[in-house]
């Protein structure tokens, strides 16, 4: 039963003993993961963790505040370029460069939030889309940032240690991800998060109860951009080489898709969405080499589409999975989780 | 000191004069009702008072300060709260969280304190608990205990109206604007609402400005009444005076109306 026993129950860090257990289990699992799985899967984990950061941040904006953004690849690019540029040009240490780049992205997010005060829905989507497309064009024109040629990441030294392998990098990325996810979760439980949801659900009522729309809308953009910026800075070191082409519209749409598939308006939903979609994105590339299924797909595409077969068949499968998820659970993976939980609570009735 | 006064307020939408040179004064501690037929401009007047529309002309004075030109959130912080005719709740939050929004103006937790809420002893945690306690008092007052954790979007209309009232009360206003608090309620719910409005006036000492169509209720609880029609004041005074005023009868019953 949902009977309240004390005021602090809603405020506690862990809502029950079971949550403490699962959280500890998760931390231990994350700790031993890179020792159990081989290198490629550690690389995958890093990639997934970075996507989680962006999507959790994006969800604060889209899911909680109700403002759409198709320009998050732009903030991601600013973070990536900002980190490398600050390290190579201004000789910042890595962590300082990463955080500064996050703040640069946040300032841009704030500025992009200003037109958002007047725009809504599709109009805001177009404005943010414009930002995302423009920012990579601008970066491509700056020689200091490598222009169209791209930039190589410098050696990664954190607190005096060289991080060379994926496994070492894993122990940098994953703690940052865990911290940022917890930060977002706490934020949504307190004043700022409530103000975001209030703006999404009833803007006028929010305003008349004392929520400053200008401040909170721009704040949502800034926080969300900060998450994307920090993730971008780390992404630069996953790839070790970045160029403007990387941060295209498709990437922005992928971030938004991850948030929607995971479930807007929750913190853990987007985490699940980011995990599922980034994993699918990487794994489906090898779908043709899966025994039986791969052959069947190749046959199918050769028979119905073209003589040589469809080259990017993974996108077709990917799209199919997305459609399937959205039809059966419009609330995304989070909705699926809620339903499962409810089912087991009342089982066997 | 002027507690609350509207002076020569006009609001035009293009050629339409929604409010035309309306003036009145509300004394501290009273229940002041606004009545008038549909489309008389009552809700527009409310929207001008709390800053949703900037009035074309005139001033709104609250505690000797002019409210015109101020944003709604500024006005909320000065101490004016309101409810809406068509419920404006935050549908995807539960009752507790909705009323917590009323505490928004008293809370100091920012992004960093909020994000770093590590348990109940942190700054944000302590503040949350303090304000949740306040909200709990309002939940008790309005008898909302049973729906504390329900999403408000799916609750019955009467309860949503109460939650909206609770949210406004949580902001501890000195002036409370109620836009048709009894609309769509059954007799029993209306009785309860009248009871609470009296409570709010007597025990919390909040001045109430109210719009209502239910004349029994208006006559019952208001200290003074302002009748408007087509954006203009047609009568002002105590319930008895307004009830007998020929212009009011004409507005409600037509040209030959007699009682």
In words, what does this structure look like?
The complex is a heterodimer of chains A (349) and B (259). By secondary structure, chain A is an all-alpha fold. Chain A has one domain (38-285): ABC transporter involved in vitamin B12 uptake, BtuC (Orthogonal Bundle), CATH 1.10.3470. Chain A is built from 14 helices and four strands. Chain A has helices at residues 17-36, 39-64, 72-88, 94-116, 121-141, 166-189, 191-201, 203-208, 213-239, 249-262, 268-283, 293-304, 313-328, 332-346, and strands at residues 151-152, 157-158, 161-162, 241-242. In chain A, the strands form two sheets. Chain A has a two-stranded antiparallel ribbon with strand order 1-4. Chain A starts with 16 loop residues before the first helix and ends with a helix. The model of chain A has no long low-confidence stretch (mean pLDDT 86). Chain B has helices spanning 42-49, 72-78, 95-102, 111-115, 123-141, 157-170, 187-202, 215-221, 239-244, 246-253; strands at residues 4-13, 16-26, 31-35, 57-62, 65-66, 80-82, 175-179, 207-211, 224-229, 232-237. Chain B has two domains: 1-79 and 173-259, P-loop containing nucleotide triphosphate hydrolases (Rossmann fold), CATH 3.40.50.300; 92-171, no CATH class. In chain B, the strands form two sheets. A six-stranded mixed β-sheet of chain B has the order 6-7-8-3-9-10, sandwiched between helices. The longest helix of chain B is centred in the middle third of the chain and has 19 residues, at 123-141. The termini of chain B are far apart. Chain B is built from ten helices and ten strands. In chain B, helix 3 (95-102) runs parallel beside helix 6. Chain B has 259 residues and is of the alpha/beta class. At the A-B interface, helix 6, helix 7, helix 8 and helix 9 of A face helix 2, helix 3, helix 4 and helix 5 of B.
Secondary structure elements and pairings:
The complex is a heterodimer of chains A (349) and B (259).
Chain A: H1 17-36, H2 39-64, H3 72-88, H4 94-116, H5 121-141, E1 151-152, E2 157-158, E3 161-162, H6 166-189, H7 191-201, H8 203-208, H9 213-239, E4 241-242, H10 249-262, H11 268-283, H12 293-304, H13 313-328, H14 332-346
Antiparallel strand pairs in A: 1-4, 2-3
Chain B: E1 4-13, E2 16-26, E3 31-35, H1 42-49, E4 57-62, E5 65-66, H2 72-78, E6 80-82, H3 95-102, H4 111-115, H5 123-141, H6 157-170, E7 175-179, H7 187-202, E8 207-211, H8 215-221, E9 224-229, E10 232-237, H9 239-244, H10 246-253
Parallel strand pairs in B: 3-8, 3-9, 6-7, 7-8
Antiparallel strand pairs in B: 1-2, 1-4, 4-5, 9-10
